[in-house]
Structures are given as C-alpha cells and as structure tokens.
Amino acid sequence: MTFKPAPFLEGRRAALAASLLFLLNLLLLIVFFAKPVAGSTFFLFVLGLLLWLPILYVAWRAWACFTLAYWLDRNAITVVYGPVRQTIPLGDIQEIRRGEAVADWQEGSPVVQGPNGEADWAVERLVQRWPGLARWVCYGPELGTRRVLQGKRVNSLASQPLAEQIVLVTAERSYGISPDDPDLFLAALDDLHELGPTHLVTQERHWPALARWPLWQDPVLMGLLAAGFVGFLVLLGVAIFRFTGLPYALPLWDNLDRRLIFIFPAFGLAVWLIDGIWGLVVHQRHRIAAALLFGGAVAAQLAALVALLSVTRS
After folding, report:
1. What is the pTM for the complete model shown?
2. Which residue of 2, 22, 167, 295 shows the fewest CB atoms closer than 10 Å?
C-alpha cells in the first residue's frame, strides 16, 4: 500500500527556486560569451560554475519533496524520497506517538531548524549563522531533520511540523512521518502487523550505488580529483588574464594567433576528464592506479602551465 504525504508546497517552492537559479546561470552564460575576453569574463565563468552548487541542491530538495511517499506492507514501512529508501521493520516499532504525546515529548527540547541531513550541512550552517535565511534556503524543513527528544533520536521524514507527525519509536531511533490520512494509515498498519511478516528485513537507509561509492570517502583521491579541476581553472585564468596583453600574433612563436593559447586550458580540461573517468572506472579494484591517473592529470596540467607562461611571457 502506498500513502502520500499530507499536502505541502515545498516541492513547488524548490522547483521555482531551482528554475530561477538556472535562468540566472543561463544569463551569466550569455553575458560570458557576449563580452570580449577580459579578467571579468573569468570571474563570470567561475561564478557560473559555483552557481551550479545551489542549483543542484535545490533541485535535489524539489525531487525529494515531490517523491515523498510511504510504502506499507506486512514486513516494513518504507519511506521513499528521491532515490533514498528508509526501511522501518514493523516488528521493530515499539510505540506510536501522535498529537499531544508528541507535543509533550517535544516540550523543553531545543528548536531544530531542518533539514540537517548529510547533504544539508552547508544550508544548516547558513541557517545557524543567519536564521533569517531559513525561508530562502530551506525546502521541506521536516524532510530529513534529525533531533533529540527526551534522550531519543528522532528522524523526521515528513511534510508537516513535528507536532502533527506520527512518531514511530524503535529501539535504535524514532521516525516522524505524516501520511495524508493518518487514521487510515494506522488502521492499515495494525491489520498488516496482525498478519505477520513474510520475511525479515533490517532497519536501514538505502542510497543508490553511485552515492555509496568508496571514492567519496577517500580524502586522498578526492583531493587529487579536486586539484585537477582547480588546475584547469588556473590554466583558464592565466590564459584569459594574459590574453588582452598579447599582440594579435605571437612573434616569438612563428606569429601564431594569440587565441591559440586557449589550447592549454582545453588540454587541462581534457586530461582531467579522461584521467578522471578512467580513475573512476578502476578505483574500486585498483586504488593506486586511480591515484596515479588523478595525479598524472595534475602533473600534465603543471607542465601545460609552464608552457603557457613561457608562450605568453613579455
């Protein structure tokens, strides 16, 4: 059985915000290509890249809000949002709280502004520093909000405030949910619990395979991969800032067109992409090979930087 969440507008808010940010990024891209090459064009390029971070985050929140649902069967309650599946076995539920019982539990506990999951650390810190930003950066504030109430960890996966949630208490942690029809949901839960499970399931949160790659937990490989992208930006920045000071033809290099210096950042991007893709393919079985590929890309970019500085020297 599938139960939708109680209606909320957070998905639409997030989709609208993501669309506006995308249009702003598109405008920056148009200005970038319309302007003559100068130092300001490099800053526009970097700003456009950085803008993708909030675009992707807000789009992720929109996806999570639009797809929030509660699957109920004889074995477990599965909370679905985006690509994430949170499984709560029916046999693990020790208590169900709602209404006044939740309000009493919440009394005296500090107010928690969500979401504050693993993917929300940047937004969480922004809101902690400037609480007034919450209405602009928080979408689905109860979807993925962790708090501690009376010594128990509560993970809200809901569309409504905590006081309006159904809290499922287990030995490990508690879960706050908000189905559209709470009474029907609880009646179905009782019926299925009486029937008993068809097989045993464990209490877990399942992320897609891409999110569970060991690479994301490897600081060395991630550092090398990030260094390669920074290397491309350095090559592009040097080429742009030196471009305007160069003659149209480079006399020291057989009168080559000065626009050819942009081959160096193109090379830096290409080597980062090629070595990066191969590194992603082999890293699970051959971590050292992946490190050599990522490090080799950085070394090639350093060589390209030396050549670029030599070509563009006065």
Report:
1. 0.89
2. 2
